[in-house]
Amino acid sequence: MSLKKLLEEKLTAEELTKLRRSFEIIGDIVIVDIPDEILHAKGDIIEAILRKHKHVKTILKKKGEVSGDFRIANYEIIYGNETETIVKEHGCRFIVDPTKVYYSVKLAGERERLARLVTEGEEVLVMFSGVGPYPIVIARLSKPYEVIGIELNPIAVEYFKKNIRLNKVEDKVSVVEGDVRDVLPEIEKEFDRILMPAPNTAESFVELLPGKIKRGGYIHYYTFAGEEEEESGALKKRTIRLFKKNGIDIKVVNIRRCGHFAPYVHRYVIDLRVI
Question: Can you say whether the dihedral through the CA atoms of 176, 178, 180, 186 is positive or negative?
Answer without folding.
Answer: negative
